[in-house]
Amino acid sequence: MLDFLFAMMIVAAVSGAFFALSATLSVVEAAQYIAFATSRSYFAAHLTQREQLEAGKKKFRDTKNLRPFRGLFDGTWFTLNLSRQGADPNQNSWNYAQDYDPSDDNDNRGSVFIGPTLEFGAPVLSFEVPGLGRTGDADTFVARVNSFLGREPNSDECKAFIQEKWRKFKEIFGAGSKISQAGAIEQINRSIMIEDNGC
Fold first, then answer.
1. From its phi and psi, is residue 40 left (phi > 0), alpha (psi between -120 and 50) or beta?
2. Contact by Cβ (8 Å): 109, 146
């Protein structure tokens, strides 16, 4: 009789663990979708970088509150939150280059690591196994869900880029260069800058 009770206890514990693990792996897919939707909204160009960030945060809140997800991340079984407001001190971007590649001093590959990072928690995995103890605290089962799509340049960045390009153009073709001696400088000074579609 004791063997039967022990066997049933082990079967119940293993079944509970498999159920919790299966549910967690299924819900992670929903968390990844929310991360992608958030990243896609942040990716699109806007007037300023701050407004790009706000668009991403709004999409996160809206998507998390959609009917299929509304009760999923209420904290009972699963949680999902933005891990930080932003990665830089001014809280204006989601650039995690230093988190993932701190050796890159010039930030050459930093643009790869731009996007939201969500904190996914699974308190459902924290449960008591009779005779064996707890599987772990709720804080133990936390993972980061990232979606690094990058970010398009915003309007301010485009204007600054085009102005800098025009300044360099005038430097190259300005007074004192071989081209200016050929009479092209007068034409350049009469020229106006016209922005094309994007930068």
1. alpha
2. no
CB neighbour burial string for 77-91, b if at least 16 within 10 angstroms, e if fewer: bbbbebbeebbeeee
Would residue 127 count as lying in a domain?
A: yes
List the alpha helices (DSSP H) in 44-122.
Answer: 49-64, 97-100
Per-residue model confidence as pLDDT tens digits over 59-103 = 999 999 998 888 889 888 999 998 764 555 455 567 666 666 555
Q: What is the dihedral of CA 30, 112, 89, 42, to 10 degrees?
A: -50
**In angstroms, rounded to a whole number, what is the distance separating the alpha carbons of residues 31 and 124?**
15
Place of tokens 């009779």: 130
Contact 149, 43 (CB under 8 A): yes
Are residue 122 and residue 141 in the same domain, yes or no? yes
Closest CA to 152 of 9, 5, 39, 13: 39
Count of domains for the chain: 2
